[in-house]
Design brief:
105 residues, three-stranded antiparallel β-sheet
């Protein structure tokens, strides 16, 4: 599929699992060679439409960040995770819900 920023492509029965797989393009940067894109990949029942952040529930996973409503492609939006909560160069450790230097893990 060819997507532009803000578009979502969904396969309704991914790999015969009965669950949807969605790919949403959040941004595209063509100022570099090669160009880059930031995407969100959502599998299964995690695909939840929303109108605001209050409609997105915590999935209990620390290392994928805070759940929020992404309305970049309009309303309704899709609940997504904000991503790794750790600063660049640090590793996220799920069982302690913390960020640590890579050589400490």
């Amino acid at each position: 599929a060819h997507l532009i920023s803000g578009e979502v492509h969904t396969i309704s029965n991914f790999a015969n699992t009965g669950e949807p797989l969605s790919v949403k393009v959040t941004s595209i940067d063509l100022s570099t060679e090669p160009g880059t894109a930031d995407i969100n990949i959502i599998f299964g029942t995690d695909l939840h439409q929303c109108r605001n952040n209050a409609e997105c529930f915590d999935d209990g996973v620390y290392c994928n960040g805070v759940e929020m409503c992404d309305t970049g492609a309009g309303i309704p939006g899709v609940c997504v995770s904000s991503g790794n909560p750790c600063e660049s160069g640090l590793k996220c450790v799920e069982n302690t819900q913390s960020c640590t230097a890579c050589d400490e893990v």
